[in-house]
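Q: I'm teaching a short session on how sequence maps to structure, and I want students to see two examples side by side rather than one. Could you give me a first protein with its sequence written out and its structure tokens following it? Keep the formatting plain so it prints cleanly on a handout.
A: Of course. Example one:
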Amino acid sequence: MTTLVGYATAQGSTRGVAERIAAILTAAGSEVDLLASSDMRSAHGYDTVVLGSAIHNGQWLPDATAAVERLDLPAHQCAVWAFSVSSVGATSTILSPRVARYLRRVTPEPDAVQMLRTRTELRDHRFFAGAIAPGDWPGFGRIVFRLMGGRYGDARDWHDIDTWARTIGGEITDNRH
């Protein structure tokens, strides 16, 4: 089975998540192509596609959105999964726990993920928290970051990422038989 793991990253955090997912799928026996979204040309020939992007202003990065449009994912021909990396993940956050709880309830899926839902049978979309360093949020953003209880550092929950990737790997393995 051949799998495409594509990603768009701003500071490298999302690339790290994509690399981890690709490694787990490779260990599960899948042949994996790991590509930046700007390098993805077609989804044809892939049995599984896993796409992810950093979130800026509530949306996937432009490269990732353009890739969703360009890939023309064949409905019913491959399994599609998506992940988003932002300040707040399903199990971890760089913001205060109170702000994270609120944002988990009210944050809509990015438009690119909604587009995937209308064009494919999207199996799952998962939010992961990323990493942030001083200077990643410029100017007024730094003030907002601090007011929301933001803490610099790496908030990626590798256990959650690994579990999600193993779920995908299990499905790939089940479809092989």
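Q: Perfect. Now a second example for contrast.
A: Example two:
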Amino acid sequence: MKVNFWDNPAKAVRSQSFIKIFHHYIAEELRTRLTAKAKRSGIQIIEEAKVFGSFKSKDVDVAVIHPTNGPLILVGVRSQMSSVGKNVLTYYQDIVGECISLQERFPMTTMGYAYIHPLHVTPWQKEDGKWVKEESPNHTRFARMYASIGERDDRLYKHLHGSYDQFAYAVVDFDSDPIGVRDDIVERAVPDLDMSITTFVDRLIATFLRRNVWMDDVFTEPVSLAVPDDDEADEPQLDETLVGSP
């Protein structure tokens, strides 16, 4: 993404080639976690899927679609590489509205959103010849905003609209070499909620599995959720303080 952006920032933003790299990353992460049985049954990971909401169709950035039962997981993706403070509230309203529309139609679908902001907005020239203004976004404020719509209640999800099941807020240093993801900034702002992009797909799948406990053959279980098999669980554990005692 860094190479794509800095090669031609105006083109990368206008053509969406930059953000589509991120779409594809999330799609591939989901795709690698599909079971063989899920693939045989026709479940697909689709990028730019046209999904009908409650009032209009929506091109969802990444979707896990069952051929007869519809959306299982829906993920929105967005980046803001300039004018962050100026436009962030408008986009915030948009993503809440998008969430409500899709949840009204598909209340059981696991919903996620991944958002990228640069650590700093470094000036670059737009196609009209004007320069993007330098900016230091208020990441603490934005992290708290996204956290407020990033944890739909597991027990009330059928009746709760406008809040995503999982949210990833990535503050990215595009000027560093190598590129850096500043999860530490987000963690300080929202210490009680995991919003890291590195755990995003696992969190989506974990939510899906909790919500659909009878569907154990769609995704491989995230390592963090894995439980020991029966033989391992039943094996007696020795108290190390007693080993070698008479």
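Q: What should students look for in example two?
A: Point them to this: Strands lie at 44-52, 57-66, 70-79, 110-118, 166-173, 180-181. Also worth mentioning: The radius of gyration is 21 Å.
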